[in-house]
Hints:
By secondary structure, the chain is an alpha+beta fold. The protein is built from 17 helices and eight strands. The strands form three sheets. A four-stranded mixed beta sheet has the order 7-6-3-8. Strands 1-2 form a two-stranded antiparallel sheet. A hairpin with a 2-residue loop joins strand 1 and strand 2. The longest helix has 54 residues. The protein is elongated, with a radius of gyration of 38 Å. It binds zinc ion. Zinc ion (ZN) binds next to helix 12.
Amino acid sequence: MTFVPKFMYRRMDIIMSNYCDLSKKQICQFLGIGLSTKEKATKEQLLEHLSSYLVAHEDEESRLLDTFPYELAVGPNELEELLHCSRAERKLWTKEGKIPVLEYRTFRIAGKEQQYPVYDRRIVRAISQGDVLEWRAAQKALAMEHRKAGRRRAAESKKVHQKMRQEFHAFLQARIDEWRERGSVEIAAVFQLAYWAAVASHWAKENRIKALQGTARAAIYTMLCDTWYGRKNEAVYVLFQTPYAQLSFYRPDAPDKITLQLCDAHYSMMREEGYENKWAFYEQNKAALTCCSECLVNIEKDYYALYFLEVAAKTCPDTHFSFHVPYTIGKHFFPAPEDLPRVNHVEQEGTFRFGRTISRYEKIVQPEHDTYAFFTAALGEVRRLYRLDYMHIPPLIEP
Ligand SMILES: [Zn+2]
């Protein structure tokens, strides 16, 4: 047994933990120990022997690594420890080829095969802490460069967007002046409110789509969607009070929403009598199902029907706005459908369009906070002109 000074113990521990993947046979082969010794000694003893040997013969370690490069490869966690680097750094430097991968190995987790890289210990040893610091500094400089370029791009597009907004508002102002000259101050105010109400509706839809994408911010988008629909409905209600609005009612072919759950007995009956589906069965057995205490039949009358509000003035024949409000919401503040004229089709909202109406453009020239400011100003103006300041506003969205 080779003599080992005390201060060498730590180094021995490190060697033992690094080389414990070697088999007894491999250790004996390397140390040139006979087979009989191998069988008598435990692996622990052999490893200790190997450690002492390597401590005493430092240059022998590279021969060991050359002999067993795969057995003595460095795993990802150990590499991070050896280089004092983060996981992200290891991945990046591996991707950049700074630390070559010896091979990929697989392990199974949750029934799936996952791959992880292992590195050649000889190469890892050749990497100094100085190399690591240099790589890290280069990475930081590059990130700063990217951020700078990003800020430059943002500043440029901000300028472009500002110009687009200016052009848009000049165009809108020209239309407002025209409404005032051809029509009146009241018409100009009513049309402005109608315009911003259409934009409010657009923002409501935008937020609804974002909410449906199911991200972490979904609850915020849902709240924004409801807020914008509330604003739009308030505007529609206020517009309805002016002489330039006309309200009608649209009832589609199947206006009711029916919720239907059959009980076991009726479900079996439906199957036995060979109905195509529960709706066909319901059509033929309305009375029985409605009376059955086990079946669930719920009919929401006119659920799919709509109130349809048009805003127009004879003196400005080129301009026309239209809105629809679901019956379930409008019934709280609009007259009963029986008292209104019927329409047979429903137009898209906001038929008053600008030349370059694409949603990306609209998002730039009338962002949400701008829309809110213009909408609020327009609403206040119409309320003032028609003395609606203290008008009670009923519930505007469904609870
Ligand atoms: Zn039933």
